[in-house]
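re: that chain from earlier
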Amino acid sequence: MLDFMEADRVFVAEKDAQICHLQAQISELEKAISFLRAERQLAFERLSSYKYPVLTLPTEVTCEVFIRFLPLCPDFPPLVGLLSPINFTHICRQWREIALTTPDLWRSINLTRSSLQGHTHAEVLVPLWLERSGCLPLRIRAADVESESAPILPHIIPHYARLEHLTLSLNDAEPLAAMKASMPLLCSLNLWFGVRASDLIIFPHVPLLRTVILSDYGSPSIHLPWVQLTSLSLECIYANRAMHILRQTAHLVHCGLHFWPMEDDELHDDLSDVTLPRLESLVMDRDSARDMDFFRAIVTPALLSLEISEQFLRSGSSPTKILETFISKSACQLRELKITNAVSGARPFLDAFPAIHVIRTTS
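^ sequence. v structure.
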């Protein structure tokens, strides 16, 4: 009995010794851990106090850098992708705050297939961009998206007064026909419809509008203050409709005419001369010799640059003779001439017009 108790006392003493040894080790480990934590805290404080040079820039400078990162006008940044301002919101908290409070980053809204890049929630992104743009003038392009752009228009309607540039490519002009909003800031308008508009589309108040691009399907239905325009491009237009519009555009400086060939039973309404006293550049495209009468009726005393298809100049006389007649009638001092679809090359024009500084031909 006494031997058994003595053995237990020895066993307990041994365990007490082991426990004391382990406690001593734990104490040392706790000291080591405490030391490591202190070192880590010092390193963390140094990291927290470090300022990346780019983050020390004044907010105004960072804003300017962000703005200059975006594509320059007339290009648009995409809604998503590499050149989208949304990228700035994913870098760090500071840049996110700056981006979300910089309205200039969000004033150009690009609704095209390439801009959306497969994004299926444009109807969510567009209201966000409109809100972030604050009160700044807006540039909106909804093109090449066909019916997908129609659901976006209701979001844009409350902001018509801020529109500075508007490009719309729609299968149906009906969403625009119901619009009677004033656009006091609108400078540039580009409209393309897939079918002819059945209703008159009126822009009641666009005092700053100077540049218009319009397709033939829109031309009979669009009511614009033509007289105040300085740049006009009529796409896929019939010559008689173009003539009707040009009679109202005495202040044009730049004009582009891209014709549809006329039908056999379609006649010009009025082939009397129309004078464009301020026109400096004229582009006439499409191969339709029947529109030669239209060319003869245009008088452009201030014209400096002319681009025209050689097909326009081939109607019973040599191209150079017809061009000489046009220049003589207009009494213009042409400086640049570009002949497209040229079959005779540049030499005949170089010989006939030595006073023109630049003559180019393309086939």
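Residues 2-49 form the longest helix (48 residues).
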